[in-house]
Structures are given as C-alpha cells and as structure tokens.
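Appendix B, Record 12. Input sequence as logged:
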Amino acid sequence: MPTVFVTGATGNIGGYVVTALVEQEFTVVAAVRNKESNKHSFAQGVVVREFDFSAPTDKEVLAGCDYVFMMLPPGLPHSKEVFGRFIGLMQQAGIQHVIFISVQGAEKHSSLPHNGIEKLLSEASISHSVLRPSYFMQNLSTTWLADIKNKNRLYVPAGKAVFTWIAVEDIAAAAVAIFQQPGKHKGAAYTLTGAEQYSFFEVAGILSTQLQRKIVYRPANALLFFIQQQRKGMSTTQSLAVTLIHFLQAFQERAPITATVETLTGRRPMLLREFIEKYKNCFSKVE
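Logged structural output:
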C-alpha cells in the first residue's frame, strides 16, 4: 500500500486520518513537532517523523512517501509563503497526490488563508484534491468541552446563526476514499457536510436531552470573546479566526447540505445525536 505523510497528526482531524488510514492498511508517516513526546501516541507500525511548517526543512522529510495529507496549522503566520515552499518540496520529493483540508466557503473568501493555499495548489503542477468541511462536531468535545462539563453551557459569539455540523470521522473517511483512488479525484474540490443544520440554541437542547442535564447556550459578545480567548493563551491570529468563524456566520447565506460524504464513502454521515452518544463519557460533569 502507498505511504501517506500526515501533517497535524496529533490534532483534531489528523489523528482521525492516521487511524482511518491504518485501518485500511496504508503505511502512515505521522508528522509531529516533537518526536520524542509523541512516539507512543500512535498505533504500532506508524512512523513518527519530526516536522514543523514554521521551521526550515528539506525534501528528505518526505522520503519514502507517496501521498500527503496537508492541513493549515492554527495561527501560522505567512501561511501562503510557508505553503508555497512546502509545495515546492513535495514536487521535488515526487509526491503523487496531496489532499488539502480547507474550510467550507473558502473559494468565495480571498481573505481566508485557505483560499490562498488552494490557489497555490491549483497553480502548481502537482496532483491534488481539496476538502472543504463544514463545522466540526468535535468542537463540542474539545474546544467547548470545559464549559459544557464545568458550567453546563455553550459560550460562543454565534448569536442565532445556523451551522452545518460534520463529524471528523466522516472527513477522515472521505480523505481515505480519495487516497484509495487519487487519479479519480485529481483537481477536485469537495464541500463536506453532515446531514443536519443547527444553531447553538438547538445544539444546547440536544445536549440537554442526550446528557440528561440542562445545557444552556449563552451567546457571547464578539469583542469580549476575542479578548477572553487571548487571555486563555490563544494567539491573536487564532483568537480572531475563532471569533470571526462564529460571529460572521449570522451574516452569511445558509450553506447547502451536500451528499458528498455518502458519495465518497458509501455511507451516510454521522448525526449529531449519534456523535454525542458516542462520546457521552467525555461530557460527564466534573463534581
């Protein structure tokens, strides 16, 4: 089987992609910033290789790899310049196919760094596919988990905005399907969504029912939320991105639900209630 170099391998999407690739018997090279601290983080047989987009490197980091799963790290400065260099390294290393994880609607917003990276890939002579997923269900079990567990609340600057929710497992499954037949997906860009659209008010209600305790959505003031994220240690770039992703959704036309996950993987996407049930233990309240 081909060997896949997975960036962001310890992150929200990357970890699921590593697991899904191993299950389909791909050889996986997990790219991590610190090899020593992550050498036991993956399944047996996964090669752990040190890599950092912001650090100088050469094509040897991609030695022996056929495909690359590529993500934009949160808060990475000068991303277009950094990814321009990395695309050059992939070309030198003879990478046969690249999947880039963008965001839903990136093709319409030139201010997003994902938009610039998509353009770099289109201009480069390298086989690639782009995945544009919608809002992650896993944000509930990671980014917003502490508030749900400790304060029984959701606190984001989204107002009454409606989001299309997708499980990261479905994004990973779509990526694996593409790597299984990369020639079929050369140059393609796919918007990935789940089958449901909910506001945070509605999600709080679903959480309340599933967890059997009251979860309340408190819409945050965008400026105050931005400041609070910085005080928690988030970079200015990342704090702004997280704030705008939620705040601007209220002013945008509701994006359509797509059938792409089922088309690529042959199964329907996970429902939000199924996701909450699957990870129910992680939402248990701290007494």
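The first strand starts at residue 3 and ends at 6.
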